[in-house]
Amino acid sequence: MAKQIKRLPDSELEIMKIIWEAGKPVHTAYICEELKDKKDWKPTSVLTFLARLTEKGFISSRREKKMNVYSAVIEEREYLEAESKSFLDKLYGNSLTSFVSSLFNSNAIDESDLKELRAFIDKLSKGE
User: Fold this and answer.
1) 8-state DSSP, 109
2) Which of 3, 45, 61, 68 has its CA 20 to 30 A from that of 26?
């Protein structure tokens, strides 16, 4: 049975994005540095988010020279797939057609986007 991946609050997702983008284990100082121009969070808040992410099983933590080092346990691709499925199911009754129609009708996508989507679907159906 596939593991259930729960949706993250925006603050924790922000931390996860930094860890995913780093592509390697990171220290708290690295995360705080990456956040400094985006968020006005104190290091204690970052540590709280990291503790929550560890409890939820999204990251692991190990001690290294008096500092904690954090690594992703849930890969970004896994999270995005789970979120996409949940989003589609909750808001569009699992209907991709309804979702794309909604985007098109609200002018969020245009003909060129639909053309790109057609090419992608054709490529998938050919097994490429």
Assistant:
1) S
2) 3
Rounded to an integer, what distance in angstroms lies between the CA atom of residue 72 and that of residue 51?
13
pTM for the complete prediction?
A: 0.78
- Summarised one tens digit per residue, pLDDT across range 79-119 is 999 999 888 888 888 888 898 889 989 999 999 999 999 99
pLDDT tens digits for range 38-57 = 999 999 999 999 999 999 99
- C-alpha 4/C-alpha 12 separation (Å) is 17
CATH 3.40.50.2300 assigned to domain 10-72? The reply is no
**Class of the CATH domain delimited by 76-125:** mainly alpha
